[in-house]
Amino acid sequence: MTAQDEGHSKAKERRHRSTVARLSFRLRRLYHGNRPKALRFQIVVLFVDLAIIALFVVTPVIRDTDYYLTIDYTVAAILSIDLLARAFAAREFLRWLRQPFVLIDIFILITLLWPYTFINFGFLRIVRLWALSQSGNLWRPLRRSHWAEYELALKAVVNLVTFLFLATGFIYTFFFREGSGIEGYLDALYFTVASVTTTGYGDITLDGPGGKLTSIVIMIIGISLFVQLAQAIFKPPKVHHQCPQCGLQRHDPDAVHCKACGYQLNIPDDDS
């Protein structure tokens, strides 16, 4: 290779790196930026995520239909594109890859690509709703509106809904059989809600020691989540305002000083 060819090769490599860097920067601004264009993009992504989660909820109902695989692979393609885009937007790829929310998405993608091989793990896809809540992506648009004070209550609702459908999917997957008393997905959901609320009508029960243990776990966790939801609803409302000194983000609306460090706050008045 001549010196001229080597120079062209290096220039081409620099242009390639520059293109990748620009793409990464643009994606990072879209996924994590605060500009109007980025906010619109984040809202669109959020609605797509919620639509995918809704499909996960109804998957047991549509699993035997002719269009199930089409929907399944379409969702897999969308999730793959989103994962690749987020990977490009990450500053440190390996650190991003080790995040629990990313690992959950990768696991869900595997169940989507091989839906019948991992059919017994399909009910775990609903965990993506919890992951979306914990990552903050679900609440970022909310924090810029007057609904921010309801974030804790909405998080409690998300935790409860996630558990309800996770337990329903587990029951439907492992206890739905002929003569079990569970005729379909709706019966599994009915049993879960009856157990969580400790209503216990007794018209649907799970057989065997495994069924009893499952019922016990559902009731214990369900009661805990209901208490968490009640606390979030009836607690005095808080406002989001980061303390410049200690970083505490939630304060009473009329707080003058930070409860954690005593720093004097200047919380904006929404009415002004």
UniProtKB/TrEMBL annotation:
Stored InterPro entries: K_chnl_dom, K_chnl_volt-dep_EAG/ELK/ERG, VG_K_chnl
Pfam families per the UniProt record, alphabetical: Ion_trans_2
Gene3D superfamilies, sorted: 1.10.287.70
Keywords from the UniProt entry: Ion channel, Ion transport, Membrane, Transmembrane, Transmembrane helix, Transport
Membrane spanning stretches: 38-62, 101-132, 152-175, 213-234
Gene Ontology CC: voltage-gated potassium channel complex
Keyword Transport included in the entry's annotation: yes
Potassium channel domain location: 161-233
Main location group: membrane
Membrane topology: Multi-pass membrane protein
GO BP: any one term: action potential
Compartments it resides in: Membrane
GO MF annotation, one: voltage-gated potassium channel activity
Protein name: Voltage-gated potassium channel
Organism phylogeny: Bacteria, Pseudomonadati, Pseudomonadota, Alphaproteobacteria, Hyphomicrobiales
